[in-house]
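Residues and backbone
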Amino acid sequence: MTTTMQGSEMFAQMTGRAVEAFSVLADANQKIMRDLVDLSASTAKEGVRLYAELSASAVEALKDTQSYILSRQSQLQDAPRDPFAAYQKSVLDSVEGTQKAFKIFESNAQAMTRSAERLQPSRARRFISRASSRADPRARATARGARPLRS
């Protein structure tokens, strides 16, 4: 009878410890999933913000291109009268267009850099919180009031 009692107590004890271990793992899993969802949401939000900035820049470039084409059409009609002036104007417009293109490229690069910088602090905070929560599972179980697991 005592052997049965000891076996039953041991089984109950092992079951309790298994439940404790599963509880610790479930807590860790829940925290990881919460962090993953937070990271995904902040990344998606930042992606939309970046997309909006880049789209605005693309629309601006399209407007500039359209106005350039319209101005070139009128200049080509005047070209037979003064070819040198038309050529000079064409070169100046090309240089100006190149400068505008580089400014747009620079603004897009700055937008991407700002986007990366906005994502970086949130990743750092998550890393710090994970590092501090990676304590020994036995210590976490003890902190919750459970008996420490034996090694």
